[in-house]
Amino acid sequence: DLDNYIIELKTKKQFKPDAIIVDYLGIMRPINIDTKGSYERGKEVCENLRWLSFKHNCPVISGSQARRSAYGEERVGMDDVADSLGISMTADLIIGITNPPSFQGLSQLRFEIIKSRLSEKGESFIIPIDRDKLKLLVDECNPKNDDTQIHLDALKNLQERKRKLKDSEEDSKEEKDKGIEVDSEDDDTAS
Q1: Phi and psi dihedrals of 25, rounded to 5?
Q2: Distance CA 127, CA 145 (A)
């Protein structure tokens, strides 16, 4: 299981991941094998991965395909995520990567915020791509001229908030282990 593998990496090799990349969310098995339908299965896998993200204080990144009906469309939405609407409902951030018909012949992709708990949805930015090498040319994208920098900053802020939360939880645990009670209203005040 993924959680035990990460714990083993931390203890045996002193390795802490900066991010966990899951390829491919749709084929993962939920912890609760009794889950019946595809909605429940997708939702539970996402909830398991979200828990893993908080436990290890690092983002989990995965991909999902769009439904067939979304192919050839200019934009995709939350209901276009294939496999399970439960994925869309559970995810903190969904970025649609599209190559719409209006981009025909251009070496670029549109990245659009479909869902975000950190910023406005609907914002989009264009990133050039080298199709021969299947490489995003992020260095050629000027973040000061589009919304790219805003989203990069938002992701950094989320990671920093998660780190501070984990640090304060560890401090509280250490204080409780030492027999010091922590006031639930203000973690800085010991009673």
Answers
A1: -55, -40
A2: 12
- DSSP for 128-172, please give it: EEETTTTEE-GGGS-GGGSTHHHHHHHHHHHHHHHHHHHHHHHHH
Q: Is 120 helix (H, G, I), strand (E, B) or coil?
A: coil
Q: What confidence tens digit (pLDDT) does each residue in 23-56 have?
A: 877 778 777 767 677 777 888 888 888 899 999 9
What pLDDT was estimated at residue 12?
A: 92
Q: Which helix (H) or strand (E) holds 39?
A: helix 38-56
Is residue 43 classed exposed, middle or buried when 0-12, 13-18 and 19+ CB atoms within 10 A define those classes? buried
pTM of the complete model: 0.64
**Amino acid (1-letter code) at residue 113:** I
23 torsion bin: left (phi>0), alpha (psi -120 to 50), beta (else)? beta
